Every structure is written in C-alpha cells, then in structure tokens.
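Retro notes, item 3 of 5
We never archived the inputs for the zinc ion complex last cycle. Fixing that now. Sequence and ligand:
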Amino acid sequence: MTDWIVLIRDHHPGYLTWAQYERNQAVLSATAASRGEDRTAGPAREGCALLQGVVICGRCGRRMSVGYHTLADRTRVPAYHCQRAGIQNARPACQAITSAGIDAAISALICDTLTPLALQTAMAVTAELAADARKADTVRAAHVQRAQNAADTAGRRYLAVDPANRLVAGNLEADWNTRLRELAQARDDYARARDADAALDEQQQARVLALAEDFPALWNDPATPMRERKRLLRLLITDVTLTRADDGATRCQIRFTGGQHHTLTLPRPLTAAEQHTTAPATIELIDQLLNDHPFDKIATILNSRGITGGWGRAFTVQNLAALCHARGLSTHASRLRSAGMLTVGEIAADLKVTPQTIGRWRRRGLITGRRTDGRGECLFHPGQQRPGPAEQTAARRPAGTQHLLTSRQLAASLGVTASTILRWTQLGLVTIAATGNHGFNLYQPSQPHPTRDQITAACRPPGTADAITGGQLAARHGVSRSAVYKWHQLGLIRSLGTDGTGRNLYLPGQRPPSPEQIRTARAARHHGPGNCQTPMPLSVPQGTTHPIATPGIGSSA
Ligand SMILES: [Zn+2]
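Structure as it came back at the time:
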C-alpha cells in the first residue's frame, strides 16, 4: 500500500468496507507465517504456553519459541527457548526458561490490572480529558469560522473587481483559492480532532465495567480454550521480554498495548529434587521426636499436626524409616541402646529367667521398659530387680481387686466345693465382683451362703416355686414313690415340669387317682400299647430348665 500512487476511498462500491479491509490486512500480517519470520507476534495457537507468540529474548532480541517436556505424572510443562540463532550458527542455545512461574505471574498481573476500580479510574481520567477536549473544540470551531470568513471576503473581493483589470483579478482569484484551501484544511482538521476526542458514552462505559467484572472468571475458567485466552492476552499485552539473570531469577518486561511497561522479577524455580525434599524444619522435628518416640508414634504426631513429607504425602512407618536412613538419623531403638538400655535377651540373662517371663512381667508392670516399634519390641531399663512372689501374685489381678476371693477361696470360706460355687454362679446365687487377668472370676469376701429355699427356687422353672416333688406327694397320700411314678407313667397325674435335677414337680393340691381309674388305665395300656400317652410337662418353656446335678443338696425325693 505504501507504493500506491493514488488511493481514492469509496470511489465505487466494494465487496467489503474499507475499514473491514484494513482489519483483515492487520490480522493476516499478524498471523500468517508467509509474511516473514521476524514478526513481533505470532498467531495464538492451542498449546498451554500462555506467552506463545509474544515472548522475546532479553539477551538477543529474537522471538522465543515454545518447547514442551513431560513430567512423570504425564503433565506437559512448556518452556520458552531462544535457539534459532544457535541452530543456524551451530552454537549453544541462547537461553531457555520454564514457563510455569512466568505464566502464573502474568495471569495474576492481568487479573490485578483489569479490575473494575482501575477501569473506573481510567474512565474518570478520560472524562476529564473529554472536558478539556470540549474547550479545544470551541477554539478549533472558531478557527474554522475565521477561515470561512476569510474565504468569503476573498470571494467577494474577486467578484467585485473589474474584469478588465486582469492582473488584479488574477491575484484576487489566487488569494480566493488559497483561502478556500485553508478552509478545507481547517474543516478536515476539525473533523479529525473531533473523531479523536470522541468519549465513551454511558452504555459503552457500563459494558467495559461489566467486562472487567467478568474477566477473572472467564480467564480462570478451565473451559476457556487456551487459544481464546491468548487472544485476550494479545488485546492487553504487546509482548513480554524474558531475561535470565546470573542467579537464575527471571526478569519479565511486559509491554501493554496502551504503551505502559511493567517489570516482574521472578525467583529461580525450584528443581524437581528441591520441590520434593522434606523441609529442614520437619527433619529437625523428627530428630527431636526420635529421642522419645518410635516411628509409629512420630507418624501419628506429624500427621495430626498436618506436616507432610517432600511429596506432600502423610508419614508412615515405612517412609519415616527410609527418610531417617537417608538423612543419617539414628532410630529410637539405637538411641535407647546407646543410653544403656537392655534387650530382652540381656535382661533375661541378668534376672536368670526366660525371655517369655520377661515379657509377662513387663505386661504386668513388674519390670519397666520402652517400646521401640509398632510390633511391641521393647528395651528394658538396666539395674532392675527380680519381682518377689507376693508382687507377682498381686500383679496377676487388675488394680483394686486384691481383697477379692477366687472361687476356691470362697468355697473354702463357705464350706462347699469349688464346683458348687461354679454352679451357684451359673444359677445367679453368687455374683462375680471382677474378672482376673486370665479370665477367672473374683468374688466379694462377704458373700453369704444361699439358703435352701433360694437354691430350690433357683433350680426350678419359673412359676413352680410352691410345687411339690414326687416324694412329697407320695408322703402326703401314704403311698410309695414308685406308685406316684406309675401314676405319672399312666398319665393319671400331670407333672408341672422338672427341676434342675430332673425330678418331676406336681401341684401341691394334686388328688390321687381312684382305684377304678388305675385299673382302666392299666387295661387300656395292656390292650393297646399304641394308645399309651405320656403327657408332656405343662408350662415348661424350652430352654428354661437347667438339668444340673446337685450334689450336696439334701434330697427328699
Ligand atoms: Zn536470545
């Protein structure tokens, strides 16, 4: 276009407007690689490097390209490379800078810059400039008016001159032409200045402010394509110049489209090893905790405080052990050993018992030791004495149960056998006060001997407390116990059930059968054995009787 001799805009109707044509040309020259290599900006592409196409090397001034490397977790990390000159001249690359910190810093800068407050301030300044522009407009309008007056005057002079006086007429015509040219120039200037001063109307201002409010959400939305984000960036930023300093820090010089500059200095990004190294303060804390705790306890303490390792994971016994091994920290056990504590084998040899006995004594609190791992391994304090028999006996029981009696001791005090005490316990006649360390029962020493009635009631099914046995029924009616047994066998009297010893129980008011009934029943049984019916016990629910032998109880049956 610079080589064109003549340009007459809108001379004839075109396929597109002149303004649209100019916009298309600008987009083409900004994005097409065919327009030369040395463009200041490249087209926005799909990759995740935010500054792709607008980043310039601060050392040599060439545009930097984008390269990617893939991490172990398959995330792609972009980096900005200045290597074109190196490739062309077979030299080392100029510089390469990872984009991670830079992209984040530029995103934050843009979101901070494009706040509603900043835009309101900018619009207030614009409004002031518009007020100044209105004053300037008055001056420019006066200038146009003066040019108009001068042209009018020159025109009148020319028209008033005698045409015979050709020289004068020629001069006046030239003067009129000059005045008309000046008037056209003044009108052009006025129109141009007026266009340039056009201020935003209220609707436009509201739209700009709404955009500023929506901008961070749009920018940070993962659904926004990277290409659109880069196009947004290009509306705000012309280019970014990156320079790596000797200490590894990166200097980013950002040129905004408005012409302002901003410089960011970013510290050297951490290497992978540095990122995943456990913090020195954590190592120091672990070192202190190892004096008093094994690994499992330390892992619990660190996790409860929310302290993590270099990879951001919770501590376990395994990773703590590996960490301490790598950092040369001695374990809790080796610290206790160097403080003179004894292994189970050493203290067993000292006290002349087996290691199993040492373990039992430690569980009962007869000797003291320190746990060194989560599996119950212990080290023992040196100089401990062998516990005496009384101590060992006392230690078998839980604290506060030393005054209680065992079943054997209670049996001796009540004058019965230990198995009777066991049966009384099952019948609920004596109550257990506590349970010893090995599961044996302990009883109160003031336990009374249960009365005969209590024992009888406990042995019988519920609701049969005043029932009588077969022996008692026989004595009442002056017959033998076998006769009562026969009556029961023949179904002539009904049993209420059996007591704990298996004896049948009968109603106290049970009537004896008449001799006629007995004969009939015997005849029926003799002639039809299949008709014999032994009545089932009445009102005895399943599982409520305890057929327990009762030695030691006087039987009246
Ligand atoms: Zn370079």
